[in-house]
Amino acid sequence: MPASARLAGPVIILCALRGFTSTQDATQRRATSRARAGCKFVSSRFLATIALVAASTVSTHAQTNWTGTFSSNWFLSGNLDAGSPRLTTDGNINTVTPNSTTVASPGAEARNLSIGPNETGMLTIQTGGTLADSFATVGNLPGGQGTVTVTGAGSDWTNAGSVVVGGLGMGTLTIQDGGTVNSGGGSVGLSVGSIGTVTVTGADSSWINGPSNGLNIGSFGTGTLVIANGGKVINIAVNTANIGNGAGSLGTVMVTGAGSTWSNIDGVNIGNRGTGTLTIADGGLVTGPVVIATNAGSIGTLNIGAGAGDPAAAPGALTAPSIAFGAGAGTRRPPVSKPPKTKPRNLGAALASVVTKAIGSGRRLRNPKSGTRAMPAIEGCA
Q1: CB 94 within 8 A of CB 56
Q2: Distance between CA atoms of 279 and 285, rounded to whole angstroms?
Q3: Residue 269 has pLDDT above 80, yes or no
């Protein structure tokens, strides 16, 4: 490969990734932005796509591909065509035959890692295994189906940069039973036609995102985040999180069960320019400022308890310094209740009725204003 072609790869990747992460897919800057000095003006949707394609097809670094020839053990060099990856080596997991991939010990690492780039890839991190990389995609290109499971106490997947779940394909990430994931930024359902799903379930299971880049659930595609049974997602990014970020996107977040928590230090847009739904039920907790249907053309729904048409559910809790409706179509369920309207009381008629009854019974009355026991003067009864 000519040197000039090899050098083009990382330049595209860096500009593109900065564009779609640190500027929140650039949609809040009218769908175009200068990613960094020296980068050209490019539609944010194309920036994201370029990043994914470039990450899979062009690299100046060594690359190794999972074969699973002998077992599922990541650390067995014979299971990869160029040996186990290191922090200077890109890794592709694009087959589950004859064996899928398992990290069951500490110390696995890679530079850029792609699970299911354009075929089927499956990665399990378990029994205290750890994996560290610079950037990762799960279900990167059209036709790609990637699945990652991080399970068990001590099991950890750390991404120094962003993790994309559903780039142009289908991606699934499950964090369970005390497993942890850390990322500099996160996009679930990045591009048009993509489908991304993240589930964080069980006490001590967590996904910590930030602080360098944002968090989008349904960036330009379809994204779903479920936090259940005491799982936690902690977003410390300096950018506002988005559910349904770009026009045409669909984002859904469910926080359900006691101890389940989603915290956003800079808040969340429910429907930024797309369609977003946040449901907090059965004791789940969400913290941070909230804007519903942020921009014109967006649709945002906040459900405290069950959503419309869903089975009945107890409410969760939203702790927010502010809740605002933007320029789009926003809905809050249940709606904010207003004090009931009451008819003005006819005190004269009411008092006359009481006095009439008192006269008939021979009782003395307490003046409601003075508190003294004296018969109030009623016109016509002096």
Answers
A1: no
A2: 10
A3: yes
Judging by DSSP bridges, how do beta strands 120-125 and 299-304 pair with one another? unpaired
Residue pair 235/260 in contact by the 8 Å Cβ criterion: no
| Residue spans per domain, the chain | 3-57, 63-274, 346-382
Query: What is the amino acid identity at position 284?
Result: G
Contact indicator for 114, 95 with CB cutoff of 8 Å:
no
Q: Which of 197-201, 221-225, 235-239, 367-371 has the lowest mean pLDDT?
A: 367-371
Integer Cα distance of 156 and 168 in angstroms: 25
Average pLDDT estimate for 335-364: 49
Q: Per residue, what are the HEC states of the chain?
A: CCHHHHHHHHHHHHHHHHHHHCCHHHHHHCCEECCCCCCCCEEHHHHHHHHHHHHHHCCCCEEEEECCCCCCECCCHHHECCCCCCCCEEEEECCCCCCCEEECCCCEECCEEEECCCCEEEEEECCCCEEEECEEEECCCCCCEEEEEEECCCCEEEEEEEEEECCCCEEEEEEECCCEEEEEEEEECCCCCCEEEEEEECCCCEEEECCCCCEEECCCCEEEEEEECCCEEEECCCCCEEECCCCCCEEEEEEECCCCEEEECCCEEECCCCEEEEEEECCCEEECCEEECCCCCCEEEEEECCCCCCCCCCECEEECCCEEECCCEEEEECCCCCCCCCCCCCHHHHHHHHHHHHHHHCCCCECCCCCCECCCCCCCCC
d(CA 125, CA 156): 7
pTM here is 0.78
CB 270 within 8 Å of CB 302: yes
Cα 17 from Cα 47, distance rounded (Å): 7
Rounded-to-integer distance, Cα 13 and Cα 136, Å: 12
